[in-house]
Amino acid sequence: MPEKTPGAPAAQPPAAQDAALWNGGWLASATHCPSPNFGPRPEGACTDLVVVHSISLPPGIYGTGDVQRLFSNQLDWDAHPYFQSIRGLQVSSHFFITRQGLVWQFVSADQRAWHAGQSFWRGRPRCNDDSIGIELEGLEGEPFEPAQYQSLVQLCQQIRAHYAIAYIAGHEHIAPGRKNDPGPGFSWPQLQQDLAWPATMFPASLNL
User: Fold this and answer.
1) Which of 19, 46, 67, 138 has the highest CB neighbour count under 10 A?
2) Cβ atoms 47, 126 nearer than 8 A
3) Which of the following is catalytic: 135, 137, 140, 172?
4) Mean pLDDT throughout 8-23?
5) What is the distance between the alpha carbons of residues 112 and 104, in angstroms, rounded to a whole number?
6) Residue 65 zone, left/alpha/beta (φ > 0; ψ -120 to 50; rest)
7) CATH code linked to domain 29-206
8) Is residue 142 flagged as an active site residue?
9) For the whole model, what pTM was predicted?
10) CA atoms of 127 and 108, how far apart (whole Å)
């Protein structure tokens, strides 16, 4: 047996690492900004889906803080003409990844966030009931930053280590014709390669 280096901390078992990382569905490494827009998951729901979205407010403008304000019901509807088209909207996502790769969390992953809307995947409707939503700061059709992919990969790995994730899809896949995000600027092949998850976990239409 190799000797332990004097003064080196003992390696934590996976269960201890997981317990240190998650507390009541909140990820310790994320910046927390609790949203009022959530509810309980249905009894017996199996949280086995990650849904990838994209969002920017105003569209195509980054780093404004308006996404955080939207998800926390603090957006000034009169601050930009575009906001009139979404006035009164109450939505949320579990996570939001900025262009710099910073991870924000708004809803406990144990709870039901309001990110998917009318949707259908893996033979089930109402994807909000049993999915975890991740918003990337970006615009449909535009490329995303390397830092965002890095944070997304790490976040997905952390989620899968704690929840029984069996599928990952985009908003465009679970609500085709109604939603188009994250859009053609997002590289699903890169995500699959970086995650090294089986192709069966991804939408079959991607031909990964």
Assistant:
1) 138
2) no
3) 135
4) 65
5) 16
6) left
7) 3.40.80.10
8) no
9) 0.92
10) 16
